[in-house]
Write a structure and sequence with these properties.
single chain, about 150 residues, alpha+beta, 6 strands, about 40% strand, globular
Length: about 150
């Protein structure tokens, strides 16, 4: 019983330390964006929370062209499902000027890769770490690619 308690306490401390360290070690815009990507793809709100500034705004149009507007905490709750998202996610462009940056992130998913999002992320370096200050995104219907024809 004591061994189990010690192990559980150690694992809890280790996992909280990893997330705290991650938030402090975004020494590049890519690191913050990659935390966001990993958080969204794995359904882990803590990773998304660490990547975004507390005052960040998230706005996007979904597949029905419906507009959504979230603050960071609302967005984190939406993402924090624990469900893995089987999407191809990549940074397709990253622009940086000293302490400011902008990243384009593209998502593609579906049986025929017919669904997508294009995210535009603004980032700032506050003297300690890079974080995302805002996200705007648009759902895009992609041209279907027949997987069997590609293979």
């Amino acid at each position: 019983m004591i061994r189990t308690l010690i192990l559980a306490t150690g694992l809890t401390f280790l996992s909280s330390t990893v997330f705290n360290v991650s938030a402090q070690e975004f020494t590049t815009p890519q690191a913050a964006v990659n935390s966001y990507i990993k958080g969204v793809s794995e359904g882990v709100g803590k990773r998304v929370e660490a990547a975004f500034q507390e005052t960040a705004t998230i706005q996007f149009f979904d597949g029905r062209n419906k507009f959504h507007n979230y603050d960071r905490n609302q967005f984190v709750k939406m993402v924090d499902t624990g469900n893995t998202w089987n999407a191809k996610i990549e940074i397709t462009q990253l622009l940086r000027t000293k302490n400011a940056a902008n990243a384009t992130v593209e998502f593609t998913w579906g049986d025929n890769n017919q669904h997508g999002y294009v995210d535009y992320l603004n980032l700032i370096f506050d003297g300690k770490k890079w974080q995302i200050t805002s996200k705007v995104a648009q759902y895009v219907e992609r041209e279907s690619v027949n997987k069997s024809a590609v293979e």
